[in-house]
Amino acid sequence: MPVTFTARHVLEDHISGFEATPNPHHLAILRSPVVFSVLAHAGHESDVEEALDNLEDVHVRVCGPGEWLVVSETVPADTIARQLADLGAAGASFVDQSDGRVVLRIQGPKVRAILAKCMALDLHSDLFEIGQSSNCQICHVAANLARTGHDAFEITVMRSFAGFLFDEICEMGREFALTAGFA
């Protein structure tokens, strides 16, 4: 007998009870972002980085030397895969991580105070500029943090840790009436 499975977001059960109208401090969960991990081969780092910067409608997140995450809400995975394949097998390797990663967007005037409670990275605007990203520990979980606006950040985390991280950030944001919901 065939069984039909319904696709559900890993945070579907965590979000119940948070469907309030967003406050100035809000944690938005992206429903189905496309996330690729890209690793440049030795000697091709600058060529790969330049090619990634030229991709349209994607955000490139630095993970380390010669390693990036490519994130998009609008470009389909097969289109990004084709564009990354054009880099050539000798230049870079890439893997679609869309089903294995969760992207959270947090914003608000006191977002740095919320994040400071659970991480040891200086998020001062002079040091962590808009567009900058870094791998770091958030609530003892390995994640990639990117600054996307004046008071806005995106957190990309492994799917298996997303529930814990979501719960912890919501707890850290209670002081500022942090709301949460799907984007």
What does this protein look like?
The protein is of the alpha+beta class. It folds into two domains: 23-31 and 100-182, Gyrase A, domain 2 (2-Layer Sandwich), CATH 3.30.1360; 34-96, 2-Layer Sandwich (Alpha-Beta Plaits). The chain is built from five helices and ten strands, in the order αββαββαββαβββαβ. It has a six-stranded mixed beta sheet with strand order 7-8-9-6-1-10, with helices on one face. A four-stranded antiparallel beta sheet has the order 3-4-2-5, covered by helices on one side. A hairpin with a 2-residue loop joins strand 7 and strand 8. The longest helix has 11 residues, at 162-172. The radius of gyration is 17 Å and the shape is globular. The mean pLDDT is 93.
Average pLDDT, rounded to a whole number, is: 93
What is the top-level CATH class of the largest domain?
Alpha Beta
Count of separate DSSP helical elements:
5
Residue windows where pLDDT falls under 50 for at least 5 positions? none
Tell me the span between the first and last alpha carbons.
36 Å
- Strand ordering within the main sheet: 7-8-9-6-1-10
What is the molecular shape? globular
Rg from alpha-carbon coordinates: 17 Å
Helix content: 10-25%
Mind describing the biggest β-sheet?
6 strands, mixed
DSSP summary, beta strand count: 10
The quaternary state of the protein chains shown equals: single chain
CATH H level, superfamily name of the largest domain: Probable tRNA modification gtpase trme, domain 1
| Level-2 CATH architecture of the largest domain | 2-Layer Sandwich
CATH topology of the largest domain: Gyrase A, domain 2
Compressed to H and E, one letter per element, the order equals HEEHEEHEEHEEEHE
Proportion of residues in β-strands: 25-35%
Q: Give the tally of structural domains.
A: 2
Helix-strand category: alpha+beta
